[in-house]
Amino acid sequence: MDNQAENQPQRPLYTRRLPDKILLAFHQACDQGDLETARLLLVCCEMAMRNAAQPMRDRRRGAETLCAAHERLWLLRNRDLVAAQDMEAAQ
Fold first, then answer.
1. Which of 18, 19, 29, 65 has its CB 3.0 to 4.6 Å from that of 38, i.e. a possible disulfide?
2. pTM, entire model
3. What does the pLDDT read at residue 60?
């Protein structure tokens, strides 16, 4: 047999955390205007983050990222409201 393959260290199958992959899909859904899918992906991302064992600094960074994602979704859902407020502030 091939002893070379047996002696090589195994590389991890997945190099990104699941929440990171879900957030990528969330941003793609936002870019494509599929806001309901984006909302559901945020729910999934929250669950994945809650279930992942992470050091405190990673949890804090994950919470900040999740907060920014919620803000993006809110802004996309309320574009007209934000635009009207911007117009009022400009006058």
1. 29
2. 0.73
3. 80
